[in-house]
Amino acid sequence: MKINAEEVQHVARLARLRIDPEMVDKIAGQMATILSYVDKLEAVDTREVPPATHATALVNAFREDRQGQHLPSEAVFANAPAREGDFFTVPKVI
Questions:
Q1: What is the pLDDT of residues 16-51, one digit of tens each?
Q2: Member of which family (predicted)?
Q3: Quick one: 12 exposed, middle or buried, by C-beta within 10 A (0-12, 13-18, 19+)?
Q4: For residues 57, 61, 67 and 73, what is the CA-based torsion angle, rounded to 10 degrees?
Q5: Which pLDDT tens digit goes with each residue over 50-94?
Q6: DSSP letters along 60-81, please?
Q7: Domains by residue range for the chain, with CATH
Q8: What's the burial of 9, exposed, middle or buried (CB within 10 Å: 0-12/13-18/19+)?
């Protein structure tokens, strides 16, 4: 598919991109290459291919939840910059 300079500039305006005038022809060629590849992909029959969210099967890599002992308060607050009782003290945000 042939892309002209006006189309490149139009897409650049929509994307709010500033393109150097000497780069317009190069970008037009690159866009044409991308669109020709998309045309090849559209020619592939995918009616029998089930939809997928990932190219490979995903496996849950997390460990099983196990009940255990919690940390003692002193260990939790050991690296805290400030604390007040059993709470972390943080700077006021608002």
A1: 999 999 999 999 999 999 999 999 988 899 899 888
A2: Belongs to the GatC family.
A3: middle
A4: -140
A5: 888 888 887 887 888 889 999 998 899 999 999 999 899 998 888
A6: --PPPP---PPPPHHHHTTT-S
A7: 5-42 (1.10.20)
A8: middle
